[in-house]
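ok trying again, last paste got cut off:
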Amino acid sequence: MMDTFFLPHATMGKTDSNPIMEFLRSWKDVVGVPKPKSILIVSAHWDTCDPTVSVFPYIHETTYESEDSTKSHLAKFKYPAPGAPQLGMRVKELLMESGFETVHEDSSRGLDHGAWFPLMLMYPEADIPVCEISIQSSKDGIHHYNMGKALAPLRAEGVLIIGSGGTISYVPPCIPPVHAPMLSWALEFNTWLKDAILTGR
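nice, full thing came through this time. structure:
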């Protein structure tokens, strides 16, 4: 039975090292998760009206969000993992069996940085098939909870499920330096969220 994880993806700066990146690089040794048959990753950078799942059948292209397209230093990042169309169809099947009436398939979208950035550090060999599924920011937490509940059987099928994002997201002009202490409002929210999860609120 595979565990599921909610992980941050590192800031795509010119540096090759920061605390998040070092954690992700040490993933296999520190966390000790067995090598999965495939990976389903929920990226905060793929937002759609309805659940949409990748059924990309080839080696993934590495994609960048439009705001990052002019940053030439990103060109060095490649993650040519194979697609996982069978997993994508299984995801769609499970969601529809659980009452989700509309689930779209996407056969052309490459992996965004919410997927390829953590994976290239965690599994640099890029030999595990990867499927990505979108979030729906227009829907509430119950909607996403039900998605997770519907997809739980994948854990027994050797699929590593990863939620990739962050509890908060800094935006310009308030982005602090990489090694700076967390801003007070971010720390306050992070603490509240942790307590809410641990106490079952």
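cool. The chain has two domains: 4-166, 174-200. DSSP finds six helices and six strands in the chain.
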